[in-house]
Fold:
Amino acid sequence: MKSHHVSHVSVFTRTVGRYMEASPPVLSADATCAAAVELLRAPEVSGVLISDERRRPLGIVTERDVAHRIAYRLEPDTPVTEAMSAPVVSISRSDYLFQAIALMRRMGLRHLPVVDDHGVLSGMLHLHSALGESIPLLLEMIELLTPDDLRTGIDHMKRAQVKIALGLLHDGVPVPEIQALLTHFNNDIYRRVVRQTVATLRDEGLGDPPIGFDVIVMGSGGRGESYLFPDQDNGFVLDDYPDSEHNEIDPYFVALAERMTAALHEVGITLCKGFVMASNPLWRKSLSQWRDQLAYWLRKPSDATLRLSDIFFDFAPVYGKGENAHALREHVTQTMPGRHLFLSRMQHVQRDHGVALGLFKRLTVDDSEGPHKGKINLKYHGLLPLVENIRLLALREGVAATSTLQRIADLHARGVLSNDEQDYLNAAFEHITRLVLRQQLQDFEAGLPVGPYVPPDTLSGRERELLVKSLTAIDDLRGRLRGEFSADIF
Structure:
């Protein structure tokens, strides 16, 4: 067996695939109990998986199954499917290790089959090799992050998220990795809330969803760049259905959306002040209706529709099979290249989203009266212009990725960004996100409203120097795109 040392926070950034062992013996569904028992005789073999012809797990036979179901009870030629434990619980190799540990402890499992994104068997995770029982602090943090009842456990869960983010930041983990983890935490909350809401509607007599659907998140969540305490930006992408069935189908999804958004608000993902939520019909459509909506936005660009489409372009699925969301992403990726007029209008709408630099590249601060006076809003005057301009290039070039760093990488690979531009923009994103996250953690610890306002006098000389360079790189990108999209180079 592999031996791994897991620090008190690294478990939250490491995936199952890194810790899984080789796949145990596998038998087909037409094998006999005798074949399973014979495989279990081998040293180090504690379980035999039963799979279909595509190596998707159907069940498992362990030593316990032999003792309780096979020995002195079943004939050797009895089909193994009569003795296996099924359905078998599995986890994806791309899931985080802490989720696997929580699942195994909650269900009393010592072994957990690992599958790939297609449900095909990849290996086996053993609890004792993933995590020693001698780390009570870590186990306590995992329990806080995965409460049975989100409503009663939300305060503890949020504090655990802050504690983990603080530990990872102190350990030098790149902030984009921490953001990805925070996004994963929030997406898990989404999935649990939707599952519970669907079950509640069923219990109340509304039945199961009448058609398939995906829940999507937009904004920073869709880019995998969440910070602490996000608000809601979500929508539904429904299966296509005849217009004549709208009055029978839509009421279910109205109820689901209203319950879902209220429940998310209750557990700490607050309602969106701009009503970018599935409870708003604008963000609750079938796949074909979404395609029609995009076509309308492209035909009728206005300041309002440009802002709506800007929010929409960063969507990613968090619940459902993902087929509708992926089809919609493919449609967006194929549709946007060549839409120069629309993208030019979008760039024009964003023209006032400048960086926090004044004359002679001096940092500029908020000079309005109030709690933020003398501070820099690094979200609005740092990250926003970077994210927006990279998104514009990605749409123009047909880049499907939604995360800012992946878009930068893809644009560089296509020759759109030079080596220097890639390096400077990557460094800018990582430095500014680090400053914002650190400030949020400090605000939380001090009992202050959590936000992106950073006092420049708290920065070291090196941090100020890097911030000026970061903002300069972003401003240079803005200037380049202003010239490319509007021919206005001044």
Observations:
- Residues 1-7 have pLDDT under 50 and may be disordered.
- Residues 387 and 404 are 6 Å apart (CA to CA).
- The longest helix spans residues 175-203.
- The chain has three domains: 10-130, 147-324, 340-486.
